[in-house]
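Workshop exercise sheet. Pairs work together: one partner reads the sequence aloud, the other fills in the structure field after running the prediction. Swap roles for the next sheet.
Pair: D.N. / O.F.
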Amino acid sequence: MNEIQNASGGSMQIRDAAEADFDQITAIYNEVLTNSTAVYNDRPTTTSDRIAWWKDRLEQVYPVLVATDRSRVVGFAAFGNYRSWAGYRFTVECTVHIHSGRRGQGVGTALLSALIARAKTLGKHTMIAGVDSENIASLRFFERCGFERAGYLREVGYKFGRYLDLVFLQYWITPHAGEAR
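Structure field:
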């Protein structure tokens, strides 16, 4: 568990998620899902569905991290396989979601930093993030954290009665082949 000072001056802890966190994680996820195009899904999830998702991550030895402020979950982050084939085993795709009242206060940066450190410990080479092209705040967030734009897919998502474009960003956990080692 890491204790960090957040942008508003309070302390925040980053730790592995526990089953007791999932009512709050589900509420954060459903708020994001309902009010934005950050998740290309239009059906809210249940706590039991999120717990099953978490258990799947644990079986793969992948983390689900939470940021807590006192006793409340204010954000969560995780990664999973980018694709299931063995040739992609060194690449993971991340997700970071923050409580609507805590965005822009350093919670996401702290979670993503901890997530990248865990990916490095697991021997991962690169991390991918898929972000809706109109989600400027998330695009800027990932770029501030060292991610580079790596691809643009037009009209691959559909939500709120319209097609959506997806931007892929990439973070090099270990130097890529074009860099000096």
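Discussion prompt: Residues 107-121 form the longest helix (15 residues). What would you look at next?
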